[in-house]
Design brief:
Mean pLDDT: 89
Strand order of the largest sheet: 2-1-3-4
Radius of gyration: 19 Å
Helix content: 55-70%
CATH topology: hypothetical protein PF0899 fold
Distance between the termini: 47 Å
Number of domains: 1
Low-confidence stretches: none
CATH class: Alpha Beta
Largest sheet: 4 strands, mixed
Number of strands: 4
Length: 120
């Protein structure tokens, strides 16, 4: 079966749009992760007190080792020796990170940003 010219154009457009969305998601994911790490560093610099020293990092996929090292370093600087972040995966957040420090939360997930954008 031979596809018409217009069908080929539509298929090509869908492929191009899918690639663009994929690239934008990767860029946005990195920005959200950087934002969460920066917020955690800011808390540490401000000396913000937390009730518990447990750190849980939630992401939609395995956190890249480079980001894990930065989170570990900030956790060490912020809370001291012996406080290892606990990494968990939750595919529902779509991208970015949620960092729980004690009963405080740094919310830098794509799901949260989309909810904020559409709730206005």
């Amino acid at each position: 079966m031979v596809l018409s010219f217009f069908a080929k154009v539509i298929i090509l457009q869908v492929i191009v749009i899918s690639i663009i969305i994929f690239i934008l998601k990767i860029i946005l994911d990195k920005r959200l992760i950087e934002s969460a790490i920066s917020e955690m560093r800011l808390w540490q610099q401000e000396g913000r007190k937390v009730n518990d020293s447990k750190v849980i990092v939630i992401s939609h996929k395995e956190v890249h080792p480079r980001y894990k090292e930065r989170i570990h370093r900030i956790t060490y600087d912020y809370l001291g020796e012996g406080h290892q972040p606990d990494y968990r995966i939750d595919k529902s957040i779509l991208g970015g990170l949620i960092i729980l420090i004690g009963n405080e939360m740094i919310e830098c997930s794509l799901k949260d940003r989309l909810n904020q954008a559409f709730s206005r």
